[in-house]
Amino acid sequence: MADNQKKHDPAKKAPKIQAVSRMKEIMTNYYIDAKTAREQGKKVAWITSGGPVEPLIAMDVIPVYPENHGAMIGASKMGAQLCEKAEEMGYSRDLCSYARADIADSVQKTGPIGGLPEPDMLVCCNNICGTVLKWYETAARYYKVPLFILDTPFVHTEFSDSARKYVLSQIYEYIAFLETHCGTKMNYDRMEEVGRLSVEGTGLWQAVLDTCAHRPAPMTAFDAFFHLALIVTLRGTRTAVDYYRQLLDELNQRIADGVSMVPDEKYRLLWDNLPVWYKTRWLSEKFAAHDAALVADTYTSAWSGMLPDMGGQTFLEAMAETYTKVYINISIDRMFDIVANMIEKYQVDGMVMHSNRSCKPYSLGQYDLRQMIMDRLGVPTLIIEADMVDERAFSESQIDTRIDAFMETLKS
Amino acid sequence: MITAGIDIGSITAKAALIRDGKLAGTSLQFTGYHAAKAGNAVLETLLDRTGIRRDDIDIIVSTGYGRNSVDFADKAVTEITCHGAGAHFIDPEIRFVVDVGGQDSKVIKIDGTGKVIDFAMNDKCAAGTGRFLEVMARALEADLDDFGRISAEADAPAAISSICTVFAESEVISLISRGESRQNMIAGIHESVASRISAMARRVGVTPPVMMTGGVARNQGVVRALESRMDAEIRVSPHAQLNGAIGAALLAARMQ
Ligand code: SF4
Would the CB of A86 count as within 6 Å of ligand 1? Predict the structure, then answer.
């Protein structure tokens, strides 16, 4: 077959990242723990991926992330079936596919882990989107459990003083909510300890991502998508800190040994938006065949470098600010600054944006952002249209052509 | 040196031969079910026509959606890159290409050497493509080849959705029942196609002079509607449907 890419040469494949097996073990234990919470006399809270999880950990409540579960559904290629089921139940096809897949699996329980452990309470933070509000209200009705909503105002220019007070007062309400439903008081020393671990873990996660600033990169964004799960689910625990230290050591060793994930890395790309979970292997091989490595992404870095300097604030104060200023809760000008920074830091040759049918807050503005990046930084940018979980929104031959054409322009 | 370009599109397969920097011949036929066979057949026809022997061809480049199924090609290159090279060869002044084919439409911004600077594609929906026009021709029981001429007589183009082919078709059917004139409906259909394409073109940023390629370029109605929406004069390529194949043959020559 004629091809404008190199043949896949298995002998040239980079050695696997060893830490992967440890990661799988931790995630398995975590889900076993969550599924057997009742037997252990523990409570389970469902929480949105951008929500402040630290108070839950401090109160010994097991946090469960429906979005992480949605990603697992996507990666197991069960997305289309579950989304269809949700549509049969009456949910619109325009609804986020994490929400559709999770809602359907709550009823059907045929997903990768046979349904999520049922919640005792729900914590919803709207710093990521408005979808989660309605989604969690639905869950609250279905499971008949209490719901706490943390409202984080959008950050247009800066995090104002009134916003700081507003969010912080809700953090205390959040803690009161937990105290009521757990029947115990918050131990604030423990809270600060969890906070320290969270800062340490997210700092280590940033250090892990930073190894890709090295040329050639010891891993790619596709690896980051996988290793992300812990910083989302177990942020604020010793387990996460230890794990990322192990991963960081391994990546540094790869750098020392000259091991790169893409064997002949020539082009360095930046990825925007959520992964296309059911196509990560295909996409990673596709880019590697063009000698292109995705060296960074805006998505996994959303959980990193949290509060490098708490500036004398307590953890709870710092938390109010950090969680409000997450990547998709800020204006496009601030997004541009972050992207421009990453382009420089990781020495990026081009950007690939996933226009994600599901995630409106992430995808809205991408065309403007693209224009800003091309005009001000001269970095070529490609947009591909897909969906993170619903395979029905992915057209392989069309995306194949776009990527090939984009790589041809980068190479010429 | 002789090189060949083969463009396997969704509806037609095209071939072009370049000998020492000049176009030596072209051919075109329906793709049909078997893309690889179509590539071979369209090249054979061209060889017959030009008297060039297969062994005389130094390099073959394939392009189009079926590019990877042309097993005898030396390399596959996307139609984006080929259209840029082809348009530059036909008219070196061109800086922007609008290609509207049977199944997709694309806009390509090129520099003074024919190299692609940016592009956008509509390949998700039949609205804004040749397929859309075919569906409308069927609904109107009209001959697509007459569309350009008929629409020139419109006095007030009908408003027709550019979001979805199926919606647009039902709109046309209700317009027919309301007694709207054919001229206005066809002009409205052209506006619908043009609005979809010009939005995509503006996203990339139109840099005249503009060349239009692809089968739909033969429809003067669409060309006129596009000119006014893009606010730029459009030069229709004399080899509208062959631009991709010509570009592929040119890129083959550069591979030496
Ligand atoms: S809409 Fe986006 S941010 Fe909200 S739950 Fe879905 S993927 Fe997450």
Answer: no
pLDDT at A307: 59
Nearest alpha-carbon partner for A63 in A162, A151, A187, A194: A194
pLDDT digits (tens, 9 = 90+) for B154-178: 999 998 876 788 888 888 888 998 9
Cβ separation B121–A398 shorter than 8 A: yes
For residue A5, pLDDT over 70 is answered with no
The best mutation among A132, A135, A299, A390 to test binding of ligand 1, ranked by most ligand atoms within 8 Å of the C-beta, falls on: A132
Average pLDDT score over residue span A226-250? 95
**Percent of chain A clearing pLDDT 90 (strictly above):** 86
Residues spanned by the domain of B214 = 93-236
Residue B102 sits in the same domain as residue B51: no
Atom from ligand 1 closest to the CA of residue A96: 6
Chain A residue numbers touching B65 (CB-CB < 8 A): 397, 401
Chain B residues 181-210 with CB within 8 Å of chain A: 203
* CA pair distance A217, B147, nearest whole angstrom: 55
- For B116, the closest of A367, A397, A409 (CB atoms) is A409
Does residue B78 belong to the interface with chain A, where contact is any CB pair within 8 Å? Answer: yes
Domains for chain A: give ranges and CATH numbers: 18-411 (3.40.50.11900)
Whether residues B116 and B229 fall in one domain: yes
Domain shared by B111 and B214, yes or no? yes
Size of interface A-B (CB pairs under 8 A): 60
Same domain? For B163 and B45 the reply is: no
- Identity of the amino acid at A260: S
CB within 8 Å: B80 and A2: no
Residue B50 predicted with pLDDT over 80 = yes
Claim to verify: residue B101 and residue B138 sit in the same structural domain: yes
Element (H or E) spanning B145, and its range? none
Q: Looking at the 3D structure of chain B, how many domains does it have? A: 2
pLDDT per position as a tens digit, A167-210: 999 999 999 999 999 999 999 999 999 999 999 999 999 999 99
Same domain, B98 and B69: no
CATH code of the domain containing B2? 3.30.420.40
pLDDT surpasses 60 at B120: yes
Cα of A98 to ligand 1 centre, how many Å?
Answer: 7
- Return d(Cα B178, Cα A320) in angstroms, integer: 60
At residue A158, the pLDDT reads: 86
With residue A352 as reference, give the H or E element that holds it.
Answer: strand A350-356
Average pLDDT, chain A: 93
Closest-CA residue to B134 (of B161, B157, B101): B101
State whether the beta carbon of A174 lies less than 6 angstroms from ligand 1: no
Co-location of B110 and B77 in the same domain: no
Binding site membership of A194 for ligand 1 (Cβ less than 6 Å): no
| Burial of A15 from C-beta contacts in 10 A (0-12 / 13-18 / 19+) | exposed
Ligand 1 atom with minimal separation from the A388 CA: 7
- B142-151: burial string, b at 16+ Cβ within 10 Å, e else: eebeebbebb
Shared domain for B64 and B156, answered yes or no, is no
